[in-house]
Amino acid sequence: MAGTSKIISIGASVPGIGGSVAGLDRALARLVEAGCEHAELYAPALFVTVAGRDNTARVEAVAEVCARHKLAYTLHAPIAVNLMDLVHLDLHVAVLASSIRFAGRVGASVVVVHPGRVHPQVYLASRAALLRTEREAVLRVADLAGEHGLRIGLENLNPNRQMMAGTMTSYALDPVALGEQIAAIGHPAVCGTLDFGHGWLAAGKLGFDYLSAVRQFAPVVGHLHVTDNCGMPITLVDASDDEHVGYGMGDLHLPIGWGSVPYPELLADLPVRDGCRMTLEIMGTHASELPGSVGVARGFAAQLNSEALS
Question: SS3 of 112, please?
């Protein structure tokens, strides 16, 4: 798939490798065997950054492994990156810049970043200033991303345990608000990452119209995360992650079809940008189900691409 296609590849996130370069090699081989065309690496698991600086020897070792496999790459920056954290802001920017340089080294097309999160009271008191701080911080590294031929993909978030407990919130729970922030940043190397599962959970928590919100966000979206869940945030706090599958709660990263994300309705002429990569995020416990989800995702891509051509 190439040219003016909305979706140019189907891939998957790399499962836990325990910080092992050899483990990364094995994991990438399994993704190729499952039919993936790209892999989404997770920066902290690779140890390519130390104290906000490039860990050069490690970068080269990881790049050598990546080059062995017939895969394109995307990268998820550390989830801890938080460009509304005023205390550690410069360090967050340094860590993100290091992730961008590493992504450029392996030829990644997108670096996925979680937008800012703060305590709800802080957000209510300082919303405009926090959004401005985040925009300015993104712009500090946006040119660097452009120089490396990649984009920063700000991802819509899900109501995680902290958010359900009321100790943290983010404007990016609402895909529409995230789209507005990306438009305000207004840089060609900044786009949206649409996580369908996150949006489904956030709609369950906040009560917004999921299909409408996704369609409003889609025009700024340049990267996709595909997974499944049941649209129910975690309210049973004492259950384990595996037990939450039985209760249908949380960001379960299930194989496609196990949950209730309404993909048939979502994919009807969804106006995402050309050149998206579609990354499956299937929890490691369900790794054996990945090939089936790759097949389902190919159907999603074919539908979007045929609509783009028509």
Answer: strand
* 72 domain residue, yes or no: yes
**Amino acid at residue number 116:** G
Domain containing 75 — which CATH number?
3.20.20.150
pLDDT by residue (tens digit) across 26-75? 999 999 999 999 999 999 999 999 999 999 999 999 999 999 999 999 99
CB 138 within 8 A of CB 190: yes
Domains: count for the chain:
1
d(CA 93, CA 247): 38
CA 2 to chain centre: 22
Q: Is residue 1 part of a domain?
A: no
First to last CA, the chain: 15
Tell me the torsion sign for CA atoms 12, 96, 23, 243: negative
In a domain, 2, yes or no: no
